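Give me the fold.
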Amino acid sequence: MSDVVIAGAAETDEIGVLPGHSTLRLHTEGARNAVADAGLRMSDIDGIASVSSPGPVVVAHALGIQPRWIDGTGVGGTSFLLHVRHAVEAIRAGHATTVLITHGESGRFRVGAARGAFPASGPNAQFEAPYGVTGPPSMFTIPLLRYMKEFGLTAEQLASVAVVQRMWAARNPRARHRDPITVEDVLASRMISYPLHLLECCLVTDGGGALVITSAERARDLPQPPVHILGTGETFESPLISQMADFTTSAAFRRSAADAFAEAGITHADVDHLMIYDAFAHVPVYGLEDMGFVGRGEAGAFIAEGHTAPGGDLPLNTNGGGLSYTHTGMYGMFLVQESVRQLRGQAAAQVPGVEISVAQGNGGMFMAAGTLVLSNHT
């Protein structure tokens, strides 16, 4: 049932290197842009969702919003996809009529940002950090190495993920990096955490964005084409990378995607456009397989052969992704923004005939997942 839609979507005026922008400013700038995009005023907003630092209460106060519904769910970079799901249910239940979801992050300059640290009493500090597993590159390489061993993913296939996403970024004026790269360029870039090279790791940038969610009935009077929310999913597997049931597959990806597809009543053949969170080059490999678009061990070759590239049969990460477009630390908002642009026909690297777009988010290091099935028709 598609009775709730995305009526407004916008990013901050600029993304990338913004030393003069605080985290709160990025939240409020993206929010104002999204509300304007929806043709609404702040006084029309009666629900708000955002992650901690600064959190929904601070953002709402800064914007002058008096919400009846608040969501501060924080499960890493996929939080915003969960916010969409929660907003849908809040609107259906009558707890709010119009929900604003905001994101802002000074990921590069850390202006007004919270200090990231694992609590001393937390499981990571006790069971992983003592062994050198202390940050995303060292965490994410653990499942990647097992996957490469079991399925024979080559270094060249892994590098091709970055190459293909740079092809998309070259078509996007807002992308942080647009110059073409080759597999050789990727493999020659600095080693960050074996086997990941610099060009296989996400950017570190500043930026933000926001979404406005409301009923399909209300959206009829608003200026933008509505993006219908056909299906959603959310779940988690483990807060520790070492406790994944199988390092070669994400149970969270599998479950959240299955729920979203079932709710939307679609098959893989119905999907015209796909966004998969790409904090590192292997995450889209996992996403393609765990969501069921290709078989186990097939995603590396699928990408290397050009299926997800411009002109391919499954356009993937068409804004350039976290590897080339932007990555503020929590990237999920930008997944949804690009899906919306593609469905509206407003994307910089527009794919012809997009009717259904799927956004797959990752939270933490394969910790949590959120999935949205979106469409420009009911």
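The first helix runs from residue 23 to 37.
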